[in-house]
Write a structure and sequence with these properties.
- The chain is mostly helical.
- The chain is built from 3 helices and no strands.
- Helix 2 runs antiparallel to helix 3.
Length: 188
Amino acid sequence: MRENAIELEWHTPCYRREDDGRLSEGDVMAHRIDVKTERVQVVEGKVDRLSVSVDQRFDVVDAAFVEQRQYTEFAYSRLEAKMDSGFARVNERFERVDGRFERVDERLDRVEGGLERVEGRLGRVEGGLERVDGRLDRVDGRLDRVEGGLERVDGRLERVEGRFDRFERKLDQVIDLCRPRRTRKLRR
């Protein structure tokens, strides 16, 4: 190890002691690097400011989406409440119509029972064709009344259909009224 130390003493350095570590040609290169570094820092500052600006704009857009979502949910909840009450009214009407149909069915059952009785009588009375003809004329009259009743039911059904058409138009109007309108323009 001592031999190495001796060898080092004989060795002369290849640089000057006054040298600051930069080569003389490196001054231009160092200047260029400094200029590039400054430009990179300027660009970096611009990118940072642009990033902050974009973040702020996205915050505004996010707030607008939240506001629009809240308005939409509010509008749909109101529409749903209106539709529920409208459907409840329609259900009541259907129940009334169902009640009418049940009464018509009961009447038809009574008529059918009457017709069955008439048929039974016709089977028992063979010799009284004249009386049977008279009774059949009465049955025809009853059938005419039943047919008239059925025509009235048909008329009622047409009125119900007309009411449903009006209800559908009114429902369309309600939907149009509850449709969200244009939102305010966002302030910058």
